[in-house]
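Loading example: each entry is read as three labelled lines plus one structure line.
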Amino acid sequence: MYHFNWRPVFQNFDLLWQGLLLGIGIALLSLAIGAVLGLAGAFARVYGPRWARTFVAAYVEFVRNIPLLLIIYFVYFALPLIGLRVLDNLWSFVFALAIYSGAYLTETFRAGLQSIAKGYIEAGKAVGLTRAQVARYVTVPLMFRVVLPSLGNTLISLFKDTSLASAISVHELTYGAIQINVNTWRIIEVYTVVGLMYLVTCYSMAGLLRLLERRFAVVR
Amino acid sequence: MRGLLVTLQVSVLVLLIGTVIGIGGGLSLLYGSLPLRWFVRVYVDTIRGIPLLVLIFAIFYGLPALGLKVSALMAAVMALSIFCGAHVSEVIRGGVDSIPKGQTDAGKAIGLTFRQRLRYVIFPQAVGRILPPWVNTAVELVKASSLVSLVSVVDLMLAIQQIVGRTRQTLLLYAVAALLYFIINYAISMLGQRLEKRFAYT
Amino acid sequence: MPHKLVIIQNLVKRFGTVDILRGVNLEVDKGEVVVIIGPSGSGKTTLLRCINFLEEYQEGRIFVDSQLMGYRENNGKLVKLPEDTTAKMRADVGMVFQSFNLFPHMTALDNVLLGLTKVRKLAQSEAEDRAVTWLKRVGLGDKLKSYPSQLSGGQQQRVGIARAVAMGPKVMLFDEVTSALDPELVSEVLSVMEDLAHTGMTMLVVTHEMRFAKEVGQRIIFMDEGVIVEQGTPQQIFEQPQTERLRTFLGHFAKTL
């Protein structure tokens, strides 16, 4: 019979807690960088010249069809070999996750961009705004409201993906679980606690997202 | 390459098992009794709230601790199937839910029984709505299968790493791996699109 | 005395804490065309949907041709019948919907055939004969193999009527069947309904089309807030409204009448 012993888990709780915070931080950072990439990609897809459109489409298609793990290994192991700045494991992961999320966010923003009724843009032009001003004051703000739910869901996904950082020894939550397990072999207790921590965080994020949506939602 | 075969086999196996679980789960969510629906809901929401890697580790390390000896492959397949099942349940529930209620009404109005409605009215329309997300799940599954490399199952991912360890051709080999994954998933997507065209009604 | 085809007694329907129908009493003769009018939220659609048990009711009784719909009596209490038993009862009540609800994955012909083959259990050839006859009767003989997405709203609704009436129902229920149609398509549907009335079909029609009510209706029922407020012949209702509520309601239609 398995004897439950929760003490080792709680003795090392700060390890898990810090891992959790790191995971959240990584997710947010990757989302931010990915959003910049995604925004650029979306604008390129919708308004850019032919070569830009093709390039972005290829990037998106390619990244979305290969495993995140592969991207992580590629950035961490392969890139340094061709002289790209040797990043430590944490920043390699952030970079990899940003590239990954950038592909998805390009599609998210593209859909958001294209869903903005032409009427708003025309109204902006009619008032005399330049194309850049229309983008800045009309298109982008509207688009953010439309894509907010998607962004939130992406953040939650990214947070779960941070668990893969453990593969390159980044000290996030899953790595903490592995460490405690290796030292104390309290497998079920550790993974129950860690699982709950992920669950609670994901649902809290979802709840926050719904609150934000209510405040900023576009009325169709 | 044997690793490639393992990846494909695992993916297909998990997709099959996961879809069966998912059909059961989806139908339960739609038509089951209250306790059943509650149970499946908890299952689906829990699985979707934790990372797949945690699930894989939990099963891989946890089962032996409980006294059940399973191979790494079996543990990985189990974890992936549970994961896939949760997703497919949602896909099916969402697909059927998106059918306008009026269709059920019309079926009832001409006297069709529950089984008849499912078979002639609901199911044909559900297929078209379930297919795209299901194909998406298949693609995600192939990508997710790469995680089994972290519990020592020699799939494409681990095989490539082993070769890198021997030959040090890091960049080239990772590029090959990326290409292989890309081809597999792109093929799945293309097949999916062909299937979707056959079942589109609106 | 003419045979009472539909008998509704003290019908009460609640949805949560809201009373939608508060004691409706109605009797419909065989061959009668009853038109139900009233403001939105008056419960007219709910009443119709209770008759073929698309909605459950909490108190009262609904009899179609002496059959209690949806329940059986057990010491004065209503006990819900199993789904399959209710399904059989529904075959005798035809319903046409506001949003057509044609099966999009089937041709017009198949839409009509489904009930005939699976519920009435007719042989394929007999079913096809009936289906084709009715589709021709509603003017769609050349659209047998068309899918709903290829048909206009008026055409789709006519298929809906054919689908319901081909089943050979004892009574036909029409739930605001022209409300979702573009104005120029309304008359084609109304004329099909008028033809049907002239064949002696018992019809309960919920509608806003006052001219139809006046010209084809034999009895008009005015409902408001879950009860029948007034009823009578078209002449009585439209020219001599007795209650204030009916007068207010008719006031909205002053221009079209």
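Residues 164 and 194 of chain A are 14 Å apart (CA to CA).
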